[in-house]
Amino acid sequence: MNFFDQVPALQIAVPLIGAPVCVLLRNGRAAWAVTQFCSVICTLLSCMLVAATRDGTVIRYELGSWSAPSGIEYYVDIVNASVLLVVSFISAIVCLYAYRGAEKEIQQDKHYLFYTGWLLCITGLLGIVITGDAFNAFVFLEISSLATYLLISLGPDRNSLTAAFRYLIMGSIGASFILIGVGFLFAATGSLNMADISARIPIADSPRTVLVAFSFLTVGLMIKAAIFPLHAWLANAYHYAPVTVTALLSGTATKVSLYLLLRFFFNVFGIQFSFGQMLLNYVLLPAAIAGFVLMSVVALYQSDLRRMLAYSSVAQIGYIVAGICLVSPLGISAGIVHIINHALIKSALFMATGCIVYRLGHAHIQSLGGMAKQMPITTAAFIASGLSLIGVPLTAGFISKFNLIAAMLEQGWWIGAALILASSLMATLYIGRVVEIMIFRKPRTSTGTLEVNEAPMQMLIPLWLLIALSIVFGIFGNETLSIASAGAERLLTGPLAPALVPESAYLSTGAGQ
Amino acid sequence: MMRKYQRQRHRVLQIVTKLLTPFVLLFALYVQFHGDYGPGGGFQAGVIFAAAFIIHGLIFGVDKTRLVLSPGVIRVLMAFGVLLYALTGVAGMLLGGNFLDYNVLAPSALSGQHWGIFAVELGVGITVTSVMISLFYSFASSRR
Asked: How far apart are CA B3 and CA A497, in angstroms?
């Protein structure tokens, strides 16, 4: 057995096996160890995939050795290898943080279920990214969504149940739209394999079936990715979920949906159809711009730190979509870079918020006075990642915003570039407002008597690891940029190449062994 | 007095249930293991198998069913089914094939396919049974 050939399958199999093992162990600490182990293994595996696909190689893996159009195949190129790396890396870091972070928020006897849900969520997310089969992507989407509902409902607040239920309704609508879309695609092409669909899709005369499939997929993926008008579920889910879960989801869940969006629009339907015939950019770009402007304003008026960051997430997703909608190499690579960078930044911000919640039990912005004295390391972390969110030079956020604005200007869209700057200014305001309260305001008398200590080291170390990485990505931005532009190039080449199908009967291929 | 009346009211149902349960279980096993050749398979068999326990719970009370199949056992079975499925896939990898490749599980590809689908469907059946029963438990009892 050649180990490297099996890497794509192991990427999914490792967390999938870890999940039932957690249930069998029935012990919170042991389940944590399993989750940490699986996440680290997944990170290493996806590093291998990124290294292997950087030069434009495409890795295809046939599950069960059933060949591609009829069997399920895993399809790895640089675009999804980098998303795989982001998802598994965020999982590994946040899991390290969860050792102490989840301790207070989740009942002790439910810890093993929490980690089971975590692993299933990761299995689903990695599966969506790695698969080259449209229906298989839907199945993994359901796995990750169901696990996400569980994780959100484990929150300490009573409202977390309602938030999970609302997300369940919205998520199910999104998932069924995606399923209907995939169904219509199947009706139009007779295939579920993405590469095969893209080869067979009759776009020239654009029949109504393809049109309907396209509309359902667009709306379904917009819900799942929380793109502006369809983001309603996100604020509640991020607010009431355990902060550890929010840190995990903010870095992974919406990013994975955005990846799927990219894959469908660019490689399955093709640029010509999505942006030329369907004029997708005229629908998505206004939504994206309205998203990052309006949601930055909304974030300004939030009284809870988690809610503020949730709205800021919707705004940041707006940036990513705006970059994608430019359909230029620079724009798409800015979008991909921001998928990576925003995952790091927002997870770090939510982890810093988690440290505050760990000590205070809440995150009301107005009562964060005196934080800088009581929890200096956490405050510094919040400021560092906040600066990165705003896009100050030498941080990861700068790289993505700079490229996004450059891409906008390249197309001559001065207004778009100006609006990005305006919403960055608003980000400065909403982050600055919190920082101002943390540093300059005296602690309230009621909480002032309360002795608040720095968060435990086990939470601070992973938090600072992420921040260090986002600074490294800020200074040596070329590394992520080159991956992203390789990805953009891959997406812009249009349809996926269909797998070469050996014309041999299946059973005879293995008969010799 | 009240208890006796309650018990007697369900006498017919109780006897019919007792008579039927073995057949329901047997039919579930048939659907499970004949799934390779005819209609059936893990999902259907799992639901039928669970139905036997659910009828038992409805007629005799959930507490008695819990004595037969405790929630702890159910939890272990739930995980075991998934594990069986995944490990069958890994076994294919270890024997030189791809994930979930059944050809390599036995000397000939045909019997390999048989063994593979047998193990995988058994995993599905066990998990579906235990999930159905645990759903019934959690809806039927107010305590948990």
From this structure: 71
